[in-house]
Design a protein that fits this description.
By secondary structure, the chain is mainly beta. It has a domain of 42 residues. It is 9% helix and 25% strand. A three-stranded antiparallel beta sheet has the order 3-4-5. It starts with 16 loop residues before the first strand and ends in a 10-residue tail after the last helix. 7% of the residues are buried.
């Protein structure tokens, strides 16, 4: 029997997947992206073409995504 490829049988895209708009590379957010950790942001860089994929600047979100290992000094 041939596997079905109808849209109703496909799984929705993973919300944790990033897609490079320049070359089409895709990987989970914790996958093979080069991650540059700056004082107030994380920058995701495509390992295939070097394009910047995403930059997050919310300190609370950065701390949450790091599992609490990333800490920011209080002003």
């Amino acid at each position: 029997m041939t596997p079905s490829t109808s849209s109703s049988d496909r799984q929705p895209p993973d919300k944790m997947t990033l897609y490079c708009p320049d070359c089409g590379h895709e990987s989970r957010i914790d996958g093979d992206w080069l991650v540059h950790v700056l004082a107030d942001s994380l920058i995701y860089e495509c390992t295939t073409c070097g394009a910047v994929i995403d930059s997050r600047q919310d300190q609370e979100e950065l701390t949450e995504k790091s599992g609490g290992s990333l800490q920011f000094a209080e002003n």
